[in-house]
Amino acid sequence: MGRTSDAKKLCDQAFTNWPEDDRVEKMQKALDVLLAVDPQTLVGYQQFILAGTTAMNGKRFKDAVTAFTASLQLVPNDPVAMVCLAEPIPQ
Question: What are the angstrom distances between the C-alpha of 12 and each of 1, 19, 55?
Answer without folding.
Answer: 19, 10, 31
